[in-house]
Amino acid sequence: MSGENDTGNPIVVALVSLLIPGLGHIIGGLKGRGLYWIAGWAIYLLVSFVLVFVGIGIFMLFLEPVWRIASAIDGYVQASD
Fold first, then answer.
1. What is the 3-state secondary structure (H, E, C) of 32-58?
2. How many Å apart are CA 20 and CA 56, to the nearest integer?
């Protein structure tokens, strides 16, 4: 980490994005991209909770960790560039 880019440490960005998708992007200086991840994650959770009453939302909730992992990978890649 020579500090050549202004997007922060890729490891920190990825780990924070695992906790809250998009927050690592924001901490790493990628505010627009981070807000898109947070908004998408919130909409995904909202739709999942609503669909739980229909019976199919439970499957979407089980797939929620995939969203976190995708955000962490994207954050790592973006911070590495």
1. HHHHHHHHHHHHHHHHHHHHHCCCCHH
2. 24
Cα distances from 5 to residues 15, 30, 45, 54, 61, in angstroms, run 18, 12, 33, 47, 36
Cα 64 to the center of its chain, rounded Å? 10
Residue ranges per structural domain of the chain: 10-80
Q: What is the pLDDT of residues 49-74, one digit of tens each?
A: 888 888 887 888 888 899 999 999 99
Write the CA distances from 68 to 2, 25, 71, integer angstroms: 27, 12, 5
41's tokens: 């994650």
